[in-house]
Here is the input.
Amino acid sequence: MVDPTYPLFPVFACLGFVLCLIPLPWHLQAWNSGTCYFMIWTSLACLNQFVNSVVWANNALNPAPWWCEISIRILMGASVAIPASSLCIVRRLYMIAHAQVVSITHAEKRRAVLMDSLLCVLFPLIYIALQSVVQGHRFNVIENIGCYPAVYNTLLTYFISSMWPVVIGFVSAVYCGLALWEFNKRRLQFSQFLNANSALTVSRYFRLMALAMVEMMCTTPLAIFVIWLNATTTPIEPWVSWADTHFDYERVEQIPSIIWRGNHLMVISFELTRWAAPFCAITFFCFFGFAQEARRNYIELFKWCRGVLPSRSPKAAFSR
Here is the structure.
């Protein structure tokens, strides 16, 4: 069955991969580690979805099992790493609004980067490793979607796999509320703090807050919907043992689109899941790709390119 979103989805996924990385250099300079991790994971997820949507357009073959082994782990890692990055962003905004002193030392910045790295790198890696407990076979190949994790629907799955985006979303909501409360309570000291830290302006602060709120409002309901979908559309099997769950583990299920597109709820689940990363990437670029600091960096990049590229006057070209 022909994919009605092709080639629209690959175009948006490719745009998301590129656009999300454009503001990365100046956020690295500002030590905004949570924001940098958000960009990196979102861009990686977009690249993964772009490759899958092109390679498996109108087919459910298995030409690259090595790629699928990588792809499903990127998909699983990004499902918690992007919400975790958003949590790091809103946590940092709360710490800024709650700060008792105007300046931040380098040691405090390093501790903040370390905490963000634990949440955005170590936690997703542990999450990916734990998925092997509930992974029934190697992976699925779904026509027009590509490589997809094969998670066995047991009660243990909801504790190991499904609940973490919801938990992270609720924690982010708490930090978001606290950040707004602290900002409203200490507006004067907050302005002094931002004036002493040129890396973060009032405009950037509220754009980061808006980004975290949009991601939170999208990710948490989507995660709850996926939990409801898994619990109602397929029976929850009992967890017997590792050997029972991983029986015939090496098999790969290849699912043509005529089967999964016949299930309306499954179509919604697959499409929402794969469009999430391009949506996050383009939303991020809308918040930060047209800001004042972005335009300033674009001008500097243009000047640098104009100085590096060889230039010849029309008279010199004519004389040759």
Remarks:
- The radius of gyration is 23 Å.
